[in-house]
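User: Predict structure, ligand 1,3-dihydroxyacetonephosphate.
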Amino acid sequence: MAAITDLKFVQGFIRMCNDGWNQGWHERNGGNLSYRIKPEEIESARPYFHEPGEWREIGTSVPGLAGEYFMVTGSGKYMRNVILDAEDCTAVIELDEAGEHYRILWGLSGGGRPTSELPSHLMNHEVKKEVSGGTHRVIYHAHTTNVIALTFILPLTDEVFTRELWEMATECPVVFPDGIGVVGWMVPGGRDIAVATSELMKKYDVAIWAHHGMFCSGEDFDLTFGLMHTVEKSAEILIKMMSVQPQKRQTITPQNFRDLARDFKVTLPERFLYEKE
Ligand code: 13P
Ligand code: ZN
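Assistant: Predicted complex:
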């Protein structure tokens, strides 16, 4: 019998973990990934499942995800090891009919539990499943260096982060036209930060956690990784620009953005196109 790691969705999951590691976003056990598995993919994976584990509490309630299956990274696991031993570093879990408990069907072979950010991942999935009409399936958390650095420098508002990052690369407003949300510093791993993040996910595909990292949501691994990569690259340009000279000599203007929106057929909310003094 072939291995579960030969399945396309599992390969995509493993590759994304490794791509993030190669970007330098996953020191030690930093960052985590989850994927809402399609029904036909679950059927292809079922032959590899063991007897289900005990039902355990998620730590929040996600009734909109009742009965869904997810592939998730394990808590304390290193992204750099996923490619070497996915069965130890990741898991496939099933949610109960209340959306309050999960059980492990495969993986975490050396023991352990899903990522400590499971409440944030699942609350984000619940919101995104609803607002995207079921198309969003990937939630990704990474410790992106330049975005984290910016949270010590810029005011922690959606408007400033969105506008400054849009200005750093012409493609940005096309890649994330809805903008970016920002959460001030909070204790990670619990329900409170999950609620705050999922609130932002109603409007945005990107949420920044001050002094910690970023969450991105998307339809598939390519789009979600690409979104994280685009935002972080834009932050890198901003950090480089500010390191050389804090004042911009020239930039992309609000009218430039409006022209871009017209030709690229995206809607850019006017609240991000404010006049600066
Ligand atoms: P986990 O190892 O539990 O996934 O935690 C890593 C992390 O980035 C917490 O925010
Ligand atoms: Zn983290």
